[in-house]
């Protein structure tokens, strides 16, 4: 089943259960301090917080998301994209836990020829919050094997905004990929074998004292209880399409194939190279989607994230052996793969692609200048210390600072020649750089990316102590 069909079935199912289906909001969060939309619930926050009246008390969407927090996982796990789509059904003071559990289970287990996803109930596992006996008995009532219902604590299965306000337990749904993919024992034992596909959040409490989850204080029950769920479309697609990971699904894989053609290498022959292929496929798509929502490469904020994605794509393609321009092939390929779901990509593609190609040209000029300097540094290191040669931190820093040559590339290219880099010294020099404070602040924003509640801080009656979003980043439905 194609990814677009999986999304359609989800939205059709919830429309048939009286939900108002709304289109995805932009990847650019309306909040100026938030870089990207990181979860399906973000556009619904005013309704979840009771700040605004929703057009309907049951809603559903397929939301475009970007999570830079997951960037280091990309290509290495089977399930993390920087761009991905989160399906979600929401109840604002309407139905609660029992219906949310029933809907999810019914859609997942109804046979495909009857409009569902056709997952084998034997392969489904659930986690529930420690105290949530209610959820466990509801899953059992649906027919879930009690052995497949596991218990997780505050850290994993309790959601808060990160500040005083709504909170509540959640229940996550996992699919067992089978013994070939890891050890037995459910998601508690192995999250690579058991893949999380859907998170149901039952917002029924008002909480405060959320500085530490273990010390959290439940003030009482919310008058209007909410349901907020998030299902990863690419994760459903890879499992339903019988693929090895999200990068091999129909909306992503064509870019891997194009990269194979450009590089003359085959995907699937060498794990280290496969990671690069997957990074390319992921980043090209993310860059395309971010640019189509209006972002252009720059040195700060979203533009900087985009620049990093484009540069990492080009760097990965170099490691795959391609030194010519790659985006004029990869961008149209990704656009063609995403077009069935997002026909509007065509409206801006000319301008988007021109900007991306210009960025690639500029970066390639930087690279060719840097590569000569790096060669000199590598040869110097070899002459000085032979076998255990190390490129000095000073040289790596100079490459970065003077030539804009990324440290990742210095590391990779030095490694290709059997040479290490004094990364510790490089980092030290970076830290000494006078605009470190600014760079750090930016970096933090890219990583945290979760100040979605800032507006509410202003609008809530009582000022709240805003504590940051480590919780939201871990579980941001
Ligand atoms: P994980 O622990 O696997 O990274 P998560 O707990 O961060 O996932 P949630 O914040 O609960 O995930 O998001 C809801 C759903 O969105 C997940 O169940 C998953 O299916 C999907 N999802 C989350 N992050 C990603 C990602 N980076 N790439 C693809 N799908 C994702």
From TrEMBL:
Its primary localisation, in coarse terms, equals cytoplasm
The record lists the catalysed reaction(s) as: tRNA(Ala) + L-alanine + ATP = L-alanyl-tRNA(Ala) + AMP + diphosphate
State what this protein does.
Catalyzes the attachment of alanine to tRNA(Ala) in a two-step reaction: alanine is first activated by ATP to form Ala-AMP and then transferred to the acceptor end of tRNA(Ala). Also edits incorrectly charged Ser-tRNA(Ala) and Gly-tRNA(Ala) via its editing domain.
Enzyme Commission code: 6.1.1.7
Which GO biological process categories is it annotated with? alanyl-tRNA aminoacylation
User: Which GO-annotated molecular functions does the record name?
Assistant: alanine-tRNA ligase activity; aminoacyl-tRNA deacylase activity; ATP binding; tRNA binding; zinc ion binding
Read off the domain note: Consists of three domains; the N-terminal catalytic domain, the editing domain and the C-terminal C-Ala domain. The editing domain removes incorrectly charged amino acids, while the C-Ala domain, along with tRNA(Ala), serves as a bridge to cooperatively bring together the editing and aminoacylation centers thus stimulating deacylation of misacylated tRNAs.
Q: Which residues of the full protein are shown?
A: 1 to 477 of 894
**Lineage of origin:** Bacteria, Bacillati, Actinomycetota, Actinomycetes, Bifidobacteriales
According to the UniProt entry, where is the signal peptide? none
What family does the Swiss-Prot or TrEMBL record give for this protein?
A: Belongs to the class-II aminoacyl-tRNA synthetase family.
**How many and how are cofactors bound here?**
Binds 1 zinc ion per subunit.
Instruction: Name what cofactor the protein needs.
Output: Zn(2+)
| Source organism of this protein record | Bifidobacterium callitrichos
In this protein, which residues make up the domain named Alanyl-transfer RNA synthetases family profile? Answer: 1-477
Keyword annotations: Aminoacyl-tRNA synthetase, ATP-binding, Cytoplasm, Ligase, Metal-binding, Nucleotide-binding, Protein biosynthesis, RNA-binding, tRNA-binding, Zinc
Subcellular location(s): the record lists: Cytoplasm
Record gene name: alaS
Q: What is this protein called?
A: Alanine--tRNA ligase
Question: GO CC annotation: what is one?
Answer: cytosol
